[in-house]
Design goal:
Elements (H helix, E strand, L loop, with lengths): L3 H4 L5 H22 L4 H19 L3 H18 L5 H22 L5 H19 L3 H21 L2 H24 L4
Helix pairs in contact: 2-3, 2-8, 3-4, 4-5, 4-6, 5-6, 6-7, 7-8
Length: 183
């Protein structure tokens, strides 16, 4: 039977470093969802850390590449003069390139991996859609799909992240519905 520290990934100095980094990143992402002023910056930064975590520590190209798409989405939102339709076009191109790489690399080999990839895309495209209501909806659905995938592959950092991420987006979606676009 696993101890609680083993369950959360604290089994060696290296795993403790990477898992603490990932938990900090997921805290930053949740704060980003709830923040009006720093949303894009916090989500982008947190996704960047999670991309490094997924690539270097987990060796999971699916999580790494699709977290990178969330980073690209956040960067595109930071470029103020960039029209939203141009940002969406860049995201579509980046997404097609990412999926081709993942398919060629053999990273999407199961239904659960495909579900996880769709979840990450929901978050990436939801971020671009913000602050519109359907942005929060896309991110909540993406979080639910990632929750399922993370459970299936026992990626507990992503599992817990997406529980709280989904709840934070549902909260923002409900606030939007009550307060209107100013939420």
């Amino acid at each position: 039977m696993q101890t609680l520290t083993e369950f959360f990934g604290f089994t060696s100095p290296i795993s403790t470093f990477w898992n603490l980094s990932a938990y900090l990143a997921f805290t930053i992402i949740i704060a980003g969802v709830l923040s009006e002023k720093y949303r894009n910056l916090l989500i982008t930064y947190g996704a960047g850390v999670l991309a490094l975590y997924a690539g270097i520590f987990l060796h999971n190209p699916l999580f790494m590449l699709l977290q990178t798409l969330i980073v690209i989405s956040g960067i595109l939102l930071s470029i103020k003069p960039l029209p939203k339709n141009v940002a969406v076009a860049i995201m579509i191109f980046s997404t097609v390139a990412a999926y081709l790489f993942l398919i060629i690399n053999g990273s999407i080999t199961s239904v659960s991996a495909f579900i996880g990839s769709i979840g990450l895309l929901g978050i990436a495209f939801g971020l671009i859609a913000l602050p519109k209501r359907y942005g929060f909806l896309l991110m909540a659905v993406g979080g639910i799909l990632l929750f399922i995938y993370a459970f299936y592959v026992s990626a507990w950092v992503f599992f817990f992240l997406n529980i709280f991420f989904t709840l934070a987006n549902i909260k923002k979606l409900c606030q939007w519905k009550i307060a209107g676009p100013a939420c």
